[in-house]
From TrEMBL:
This is 3-oxoacid CoA-transferase subunit A. It comes from the Bacteria. Belongs to the 3-oxoacid CoA-transferase subunit A family. InterPro entries: 3-oxoacid_CoA-transf_A, CoA_trans_fam_I, CoA_transf_BS, NagB/RpiA_transferase-like. The keyword Cytoplasm does not apply. The lineage of its organism: Bacteria, Pseudomonadati, Pseudomonadota, Alphaproteobacteria, Hyphomicrobiales. Keywords: Transferase. It comes from Jiella mangrovi.
Length: 235
């Protein structure tokens, strides 16, 4: 089954108001900027977004927030280099925040992809983040129960992809992308290089094509940090 789409607009079609969307990346590393901007052009509202941070400047996730598309953000680092778009909306009550420790966020996403409804971790026990959550004791140590995270869609960025959706990643861009690919009902990947079937060594595949529904080639992807250095805005 050929999962290739001709344009980023075509790839993100069908993401509707109220959807939960996971967006890969660790800051700018592995962030699917072109897919995010295509989603801004499509204009769905009241989205719940799962991401490591809250965006920077006026591009990518920050631009989504700035355009009023995000009703709730689930993330680990809402305060990064230039989170003005998020901060302003959070302080005046226009966006909801669910703060999750980074390791817990990764494990909640992994659990969603693995079909594990809940797990226990010592992280956040005795803090505000652990309040009102079930707890249990194991070997004399207290743990907090955390629930899986799943999404309607995941937007991810990969290095190599083939028509069947098999993916590899470039260095640190691997971060949250493979986890999110498994935890969404529909995974949409932008790839820097689309190769023919058989063009990726099976031993090198990180995300098997079974987890990918759509992919689009973006041969010269933009980098969030470079865009912000140039004081870029989207659109």
């Amino acid at each position: 089954m050929n999962k290739r789409h001709a344009t980023t607009a075509e790839a993100v079609a069908g993401i509707s108001d109220g959807a939960t969307v996971m967006i890969g990346g660790f800051g700018g590393s592995g962030a699917p900027i072109e897919l995010i901007h295509a989603l801004i052009d499509a204009g769905p509202k009241n989205l719940t977004v799962v991401n490591n941070n809250a965006g920077n400047g006026h591009v990518g996730l920050a631009a989504m927030i700035e355009h009023g598309m995000v009703a709730k953000l689930i993330c680990s680092f809402p305060k990064s280099k230039d989170p003005k778009a998020f901060t302003e909306r959070y302080l005046d009550g226009r966006i909801e925040l669910e703060l999750v420790p980074q390791g817990t966020l990764a494990e909640r996403i992994r659990a969603g992809g693995a079909g594990i409804p809940a797990f226990y971790t010592p992280t956040a026990y005795g803090t505000e983040l652990g309040e009102k959550k079930p707890t249990a004791e194991f070997d004399g140590k207290p743990y907090v129960q955390e629930r899986w995270l799943k999404a309607d869609f995941a937007l991810i960025k990969a290095e190599l992809g083939d028509p069947y959706g098999n993916l590899t990643y470039r260095l640190a861009a691997r971060n949250f992308n493979p986890l999110m690919a498994t935890a969404a009902a529909v995974t949409i990947a932008q790839v820097s290089h689309l190769v023919e079937a058989g063009g990726i060594d099976p031993e090198a595949v990180v995300t098997p094509g079974i987890f990918v529904n759509r992919l689009v080639e973006v041969s010269d992807p933009q980098q969030e940090e470079i865009l912000n250095q140039a004081e870029a805005r989207y659109p």
